[in-house]
Design brief:
10% strand; 223 residues; five-stranded parallel β-sheet; 5 strands; alpha/beta; 9 helices
């Protein structure tokens, strides 16, 4: 017999973000820990949302609604997870590259990663290579990922510029780089030396988790 899905799980899948905060608090009041809520409700719900999208049953609007719902839950859970000293899947610095103002795909990836247990630092759109690198410097020593998105063919060279800047700053081996967006391909990712590439938010989570399995965090920090 299949395990009954919680009201929080269903609210995330349905994108019913208006009730997610109440459902999250109800689980906490009933004695569930933040980790249990994350692992048993939020993460599997976002996993189902990703599956529905890949199967053609969900489209971008449904994904965005579900992502917003997951963010409502994480707004409550994140402070509690930090207070408890819970180790997350990793730290993700994410943004759309310089010259590109498109953020729908980036927002979806950010929300899906957060729902999957990553700490997400969203830098927004039109992010210069220097801003990416500056932010990476603040989290060196942790399981660290840099995710760059682009929708315009004219802006994807900024991904290589950012990776090259990481190299020149001595940070290239301190962070795993992932790239994605409509004009980005696996061949391009290989060409610029990115560690990972994904075509969807769900796939990005899988790629990041796979990269994280062999992670050996550096104890070195950058001033």
């Amino acid at each position: 017999m299949a395990e009954e899905k919680s009201d929080l799980y269903l609210a995330i899948v349905d994108g019913d973000f208006d009730v997610v905060a109440d459902e999250t608090q109800a689980l906490l009041d009933a004695g569930a820990t933040p980790v249990e809520i994350l692992d048993n409700h939020v993460v599997p719900a976002m996993g189902e949302v990703g599956d529905l999208f890949e199967e053609g049953e969900y489209f971008v609007p449904e994904l965005l609604m579900a992502a917003k719902a997951a963010q409502e839950a994480m707004a409550i859970l994140n402070p509690l997870l930090k207070q408890a000293g819970v180790e997350r899947q990793g730290v993700v610095v994410i943004g759309t590259v310089k010259g590109d103002m498109h953020d729908i795909g980036k927002n979806l990836v950010a929300a899906t990663l957060e729902g999957a247990g990553f700490e997400v630092i969203d830098l927004g759109c039109n992010v210069a290579p220097e801003k990416f690198v500056e932010t990476v410097k603040t989290r060196v020593g942790e399981k660290l990922f840099l995710c760059m998105s682009a929708l315009l063919t004219t802006t994807i060279p900024q991904m290589k510029t950012t990776i090259d800047l990481l190299e020149s700053e001595g940070l290239r081996d301190k962070v795993k780089t992932l790239v994605g967006g409509a004009p980005v391909t696996q061949a391009f990712a290989d060409e610029i030396g990115a560690d990972g590439y994904s075509e969807s938010a769900n796939e990005c989570v899988s790629v990041a988790k796979d990269l994280g399995k062999s992670w050996v965090p550096s104890a070195e920090t950058t001033a």
